[in-house]
Amino acid sequence: MDVPSGEIDRISALPDKLLHVILGHLGYAPPSPRRPSDFVGFVDWALAHRAADADMDSLKIEFTNKQQAPASPEKVSEWLRYAAQHVVHSVDIDIGYYYGHCSGRTEPTTDEQQAVVVEVPSHGKATSIFFVLPNHRFKLLPHDPAAAAAGARHEALTNLELFSLSFSSDGHELTDFVSSCCPRLRRLLVCGPKGLRRLTLRSDSLQDFSVSGATDLQTLDVATPNLRVFYMCLCFTYRKIYGNCDEYVDGTDDKLVRVVAPKLEEIVSMYNSRRMPADLDIHDLTTVRRLTDLYLDMHEKYHSSTDGVGFWLLENCPNVEHVDVRLGHMPRGSKLAGAAEEEELVDLTSEGKAPLGKVRSLVVRATGYLKHHFVASVSSLLVRCPQLTSLRVDIMQFCIKEATWGCFCEGVADKWDICGKVALESLEEMRMTGFGGTEEEMQLVRLLFDSSASSIKRMALVHASAANNKKAGVLPDVKDIDTIYHELMKIPCAHLGSWRLSKKTFTWTSDATS
């Protein structure tokens, strides 16, 4: 390669894999050593000096410096065409920060005419594609006649991740791309899409589908015979388009979500702004074995009948074996004040409630509970899961709330009266993190020993200070490790085993196990 006099060409002879790494990390380097200094120009220069017919394993182009001038949409489209012709493994193009877009904290442009167009080829060789393209509208390039005649598609593509792209309101480009161009696609992730009001997915190969931050979404229709995992979070905010606060979606007449997936095994999150079971139409929940990251808005043993997708899934997935929930307490006004007439309080432990008899593993993440209400809320779940063999409780000490802020549950007299007894005769292992030795936490430990005395084999309590949070040691209710250790030694039933303290973790082991 010709270079200016006296300079050494250090690029052309590099292996493709090393070149890929250099391009991926170039944004962190100071500007001075770059040849040329302009990042977009450097990428073009580096790609242009490769053999025209040579394939490469992976291509990663990432803008990590906010001061860098963004690439033009024409340039991004050009890189995509190059990747379609040459990359055989992964394509990763990131021209902006996407975290804010996924959570809705930025100021995205959602109007179809305002977002610039990026042209995505209808065929390629890569097995994985990862795009972070804020304010770029997804447009599928028409088939090249020669490529179309040869039936060229993204035959090898199995993983597609799209962050912060804009779409037409009916999402037809994404629908067509998945159904027509990706015959082997197994995983699809769509995060922070803008302008996408309706999405229809049809795919025989798709196994894992995630959609989050779809604030404009009005309807989602998924029919995928081999789908195993379905994740949905922070979708449906009523608005017809982001920023037009006066326009809302009327979701009272039709289902917002329709899923036909006869092999569905795991449902994740389902947390969205509506949180209404009536919005969901998920066919045949009998195949579901895992419910993950469900949000439960609990008021001791109660929850609202109109605010509980998580509870609805618990009650309607009869064969679920693993449950992972986030336990919160969202303050609500009087049950009748401004509420729909059909809203009622539901007792999770009431007589006649069928046990969740196949649940073997339960994870409870206490992310926003009320002080002194923790045990009642956790106990309400445990009553329904008599066949548990494994339990994990993660406590976030900084999320403990001191007051109810006028919540309706202040006036409910029997909120601590659990109907039924906590009986965990199959429980073998229990782990609690964020443990501070508070009165409530010690009460829960005693409850677990009492309810599983004949079966429990191991219990591990990880002290709150193990999280390496500087404030953990100054929380008023968190006791020091020595004090907790001596209190644990006095718990009834604990004499059936022995406690050991190591690296801020209290571990109890049954004598029978030893």
TrEMBL record:
It comes from the Eukaryota. InterPro entries: FBL15-like, LRR_dom_sf. This is FBD domain-containing protein. It comes from Eleusine coracana subsp. coracana. The lineage of its organism: Eukaryota, Viridiplantae, Streptophyta, Embryophyta, Tracheophyta. The gene is gb12157.
